[in-house]
Amino acid sequence: MNVGGDSRSKLAWNLNVNYSLPVGSSEGGRIAYFPSLTYKPSPSVNVTVSPSWDHDFTAQQFVTSRSDATAPAGFGGVRYVFGRLEQKTFAVNTRVNATFTPNLTLELFAQPFLASGHYTSFKEFAKPKSGEMIYYGRDNGSTVTATTDASGGTTGYAVDPDGGGAAAAFTFDNPDFNVRSLRGTAVMRWEYRPGSTLFFVWTQQREGFDSFGDFEFSRDRSQLFRDRPTNIFQVKATYWLGK
Description:
The protein is mainly β. The chain has one helix and 13 strands.
């Protein structure tokens, strides 16, 4: 679904919504919102803010694999482990374009990005070319146990695919994730003589990773601005060799 106002007006808006199955569906689902707001206070200034929120469930997301001669037939002696992934993503694209004179302009861009992913319902396919799954902890006498650290946080999982059967138990690290980043750019253009231009460019990049798995906007936003930034400043010049 997409709706919007008059793009020629001083304040223009637009909203795009994407929806598939309900996000709680066992088959996976998604709902995402992409609003956008553009403000033109004057003919020489344009400000656009475009936030987005995406809540997505993937029913079978690959996690890891383990060699095992007792794995279901047809998989070449390998167990392919899948999980149900709940992913939440928030981002904001902000752009400012300003023209001070025909020879002097400024462009600003910033994009904070926060995402989380939480895995549950670990499983494997029962046979090739089939949607039938073997859920650990529910089917074939299998067990799955979370391993934790001193603070109680989940560090990984221990799986026995068939309980007391011949299959070897195995472990894997917690696949949950929190990813955050911030990209910012400022570009000033000065045409100091016809055909000759100076560009002053500043770029900042911040990024970080944790394995909480849950989405907490306040916590993740605060941590983003504590992540160490990388700053790059560049100057580019062009010169017109005219007659």
